[in-house]
Amino acid sequence: MSDKNGGSGTKPDVDAIRADIKQTRAELGETVQALAAKADVKARAKEQVEITKAKAKAQVHDATEKVRGAAATAAAAASGRVRAATSQAEDKIAPALDKVRESGALDKAQDAREQVKRNPVPFAAVLAAGVALVGIILIVRGRRR
Fold first, then answer.
1. Where are the beta strands (DSSP E) in the chain?
2. How would you class 116 by CB atoms within 10 Å of its CB: exposed for 0-12, middle for 13-18, buried for 19 or more?
3. Is the separation of the CB atoms in 116 and 123 below 8 Å?
4. What is d(CA 54, CA 72) in angstroms, rounded to the nearest whole number?
5. Which of 10-14, 56-60, 81-85, 91-95 ranks highest by mean pLDDT?
6. Radius of gyration of the chain measured on its C-alpha atoms
């Protein structure tokens, strides 16, 4: 800027002007890159898809952990209930089993089982007689009506 242009009379430093030009070029390059990125719809769409996929994976992971925790809690509760029911059943069965042993019914049942194994014919005959008796009763009842 010379005196002819209406300047103050001092000439600007060439190195300062070059540094200013360099900075302006860098800023302009950044601006062009930003505009190019905004104009690249395909790349922006891919980026958005990746972000959405990452969010979905995180939500699936969180939901899976919640379900696993709930399942573990339910399994522990069910296991505790089964143990309690088993304990109650054992407490109730033990006196009944003692009574059966004291009465000798268990020994009699085992003796009967052994007798049937040794000689199944009388058992079959008794069974057949019972079936015949039931049949006769049904026939007689049918005639009365």
1. none
2. middle
3. yes
4. 27
5. 56-60
6. 49
Residue the block writes with tokens 């020994």: 107
- CA–CA dist 126, 122 (Å, integer): 6
Query: Among all chains, which residue has been given the structure tokens 């070059």?
Result: 18
Per-residue pLDDT of 7-30, as tens digits, reads 555 677 888 899 999 999 999 989
What is the distance between the alpha carbons of residues 51 and 45, in angstroms, rounded to a whole number?
Answer: 10
25-62 per-position pLDDT tens digit? 999 989 988 888 778 888 888 889 999 999 999 999 99
pTM of the model: 0.38
Instruction: Work out the percent of the chain whose per-residue pLDDT is above 70.
Output: 92
**Phi, psi for residue 72 in degrees, rounded to 5:** -65, -40
Q: What is the DSSP string of 86-110?
A: HHHHHHHHHHHHHHHHHHTHHHHHH
Q: Residue 9 contacts by C-beta under 8 Å, 6 or more apart in sequence?
A: 3
Q: Rounded distance, CA 133 to CA 145, Å?
A: 19
Return the amino acid letter for 80. Answer: G
Check: CB of residue 7 under 8 Å from CB of residue 13: no
